[in-house]
Amino acid sequence: MSEGFVYILTNEAMPGFVKIGLTQQDDVADRVKQLDTTSVPMPFEVHFAARVPDCRKLERTLHFVFGENRTRKNREFFKINPDLAKAIIELVAIAPVEYSDEEQDIDAKERAEIEQTRTRREVRTFKSLNVPVGAQLTFTKDDAITCTVVSDRKVLFEGQIMSATAAALAVVRQMGYDWKTVNGMEYWAYKGVKLSSLGEGQPDFEADEEADSAIMPSGPGPGSGVLP
Known about the structure:
- The chain is α+β, with helices and mostly antiparallel strands.
- The chain has 2 domains: about 5-110, no CATH class; about 120-200.
- Helices cover about 25% and strands about 25% of the residues.
- The chain has helices spanning about 30-35, 55-65, 80-90, 110-120, 165-175, 195-200; strands at about 5-10, 15-25, 45-50, 75-80, 95, 135-140, 140-150, 155, 160-165, 190, 195.
- The strands form 2 sheets. The chain has a 6-stranded antiparallel sheet. It has a 5-stranded antiparallel sheet with strand order 4-2-1-3-5.
- It is globular and about 50 Å long.
């Protein structure tokens, strides 16, 4: 077996695309820096990385599972929700690995630009997506789980009014995943279409003070299954 690291990289300038790669050295941060060229408007960042027992086998499995979503056959880029790959890696991970902005060579100005771009994209009004108040949204991983749109930015979930992102994170936590944040646009669908797909080409909107970043306290440990 080839113990090493498997990582998921994202770039806010390329929403929806992720890079899945491996390294047998603890040099994931260096891999991020290598991708930061003048042809890329924003730096890449580590969405998730972990030390695993057999990095080559795991990377091969991930590339096989998400093969139909691969951008080009000779590239490690996939058009997927990065949390799906993360859930698979967590099943076999020896330990997750985190990297600071300094290690990834992301300065304060770049971090501010990344977060601003992420917030503008993730926080849109339901009106801009042509989703009316009163509409029922279904969870993309289990259509038995629903929430109801109650305003331009909020939904009613389990008797509480919150952002779609907070509701999605609550469901993910109930499934046993100890994640700090998710993109709600990837987890709720209207009439069978993900909100993120409805939002393609739509204008961005400023976030309110509650900012739908939905960072919540840590919950239970990772679940024993993979998000379907």
